[in-house]
Amino acid sequence: MAKDKERSINPAQAQRRLEKAKALKKGKAEVQARRNEKLARRNPDRLQRQIDNLKAAEESGQPLRPSEKQHLEELERDLRAVKKAREALGDKAPTFDGDESVRRIPMPKDTPPPIPRQHHTPRRATNANMEPLGEGRGRGEAQATTTIVPVPVPLPPPPPAAAQPKPKPEPKTVYEAAPVIKDLRKEAVSKFVPTVVRMKQEAVKGQSGRLLEPEEMDRLEREGYIPGASSQPGQPSPVESGAAIGTGPKTGSPAMNATPPTEVNTSKMRTVQIEDVEDEDI
């Protein structure tokens, strides 16, 4: 029967259980070591003084409050834990007493006596009607202590600093957006040109793709399309006349609205006189 039990045990599973137990033990040891280090940093003498003060107040005949009793129990429990932790650490436990050679150095004559520490107990709501009147109000009387307040001495004015040269202003580039002024009259003459006038201008410049006959060149020169040609006074230029025509109301395409400029009649006026002549043969 024992052999069957030994056969049923899995060696791999037993090894895992052993490793798990070792890990748990190691974790508990680390937690306990950190707890001991934390408790060892607390000063047991200070805890003992707080316990003695509370016990002295209780022995004086004044009963402790429930919160003070609870605080006393916590202090006693913490003191036992701190002593146990310091014993566990041994020489590694921190020390709170200073060097004896330093503690024997006397203080200067003008040094005021040290102010005793006041251990504050947790406050709780009290009824003012239950407190006694007079100077002996509450547990313990306030002791008047003399304190020396240092008076600040004004420092002498600093010496005048040497005049430092003023830094030169750095050149800066300022970008401005000035308004663009346009001459609408010139734009109207240059842009709004009738189709017929534009075709004649292109023909003069040779952009129409065909050659002009001499008669057509003469006619265009008389109409003022060729620059430098003299035009009759008082006659508007073809561009101006075309622009004026284009500014009127339009009904249809630009080619229908545009009208060719009036050709200048340069032929002379001829007069014809009819005379009655008698026939000599009759």
TrEMBL record:
Stretches with biased composition (Basic and acidic residues): 16-49, 66-90
Protein known as: Wbp11/ELF5/Saf1 N-terminal domain-containing protein
Lineage: Eukaryota, Fungi, Dikarya, Ascomycota, Pezizomycotina
Regions of compositional bias (Polar residues) in chain numbering: 254-270
One Pfam entry name: Wbp11
Region (Disordered): 1-172, 225-282
Cross-referenced InterPro entries: Wbp11/ELF5/Saf1_N (IPR019007)
Gene Ontology biological-process entries: RNA processing
Wbp11/ELF5/Saf1 N-terminal domain residues: 6-84
Compositional bias per record (Pro residues), positions renumbered to this chain: 151-162
Biased composition (Low complexity): 227-238
